[in-house]
Amino acid sequence: MTAAVCWIPSQSPSGIDWRSLLGPLRGNTAACFAMEARHRADNPAPVSKAIDENEVDDIRQARTGDGHSFERIVCRHQQEIARRLRRFSRDPSVLEDLVQETFVQAYFSLHRFRGETPLIHWLHRIAVRSGYRFWKINRSRSAHVSIDGLDPAAPQPSSDEASELLERVMSKLSPRDRLVLTLIYLEGHDVAETAALTGWSRTMVKVQAYRARGRLRKWIERERAGEPRGRN
User: Fold this and answer.
1) Is 46 left (phi over 0), alpha (psi -120 to 50) or beta?
2) Relative to the CA of 31, which of 38, 47, 152, 227 has its CA 20 to 30 Å away?
3) Could you name the CATH architecture of 18-137?
4) What is the C-alpha separation between 28 and 68, in angstroms, rounded?
């Protein structure tokens, strides 16, 4: 996957023209990291607290419409968010749209961020829900679930053939089934983490995972038996 680029929204709620204000850095990942380094150098703090304090300051300033502060947030977290969203699509243009949608939602929801968890955790929740909506909207299309970078503790395909089988049968499941299987079995999240990412209750996560496993097993059996393909 190519390096993510800085994405900046064109307008803020206060009417700031983000593109003209931040244009020189748009599309330049190296500049993003250089800018972040300069920001930290200009705002010294104890090493153990530097990142947290900068994050808090950027959030506070971004809420007032400060474009530079929000760009630092984007540059700081966009690559991790892109890795998360790659689970939902490996099409570069779709992935870019999903990353953009995530940060658009984050910007307009910053006033609701309470700071009880790190900002990146909150961004992951927004990203997962954006990806889930994408799956639901595009359910009629052939879906792909990335199996790159699986958690070591999660079950992994033993061969290319098994990998292809997994992707094929996952594409036949409902978006809800694919989401819970991806989070728990491909990424290795526990029930509590999956509930936090999806907004579902823990009971719902357990029930959904149980049912999704059963449907996945049936599709695998059908594929191996060479039955006609269709949607469940």
Assistant:
1) beta
2) 47
3) Orthogonal Bundle (1.10)
4) 15
Q: What is the DSSP string of 214-228?
A: HHHHHHHHHHHHTPP
Domain borders along the chain are 18-137, 160-225
pTM for the model stands at 0.67
Residue 193 to residue 163: CA distance in whole angstroms: 25
Strands (DSSP E) contained in the chain are: none
Quick check: 208 and 176 in contact, CB under 8 A?
yes
pLDDT in tens, 180-196: 999 998 899 999 999 99
Residue carrying the six token digits 């803020």 = 12
CA angle 183, 189, 192 (to 5 degrees): 110
* Residues 136, 139, 144: CA angle, nearest 5 degrees: 105
- What SS3 class is residue 157? coil
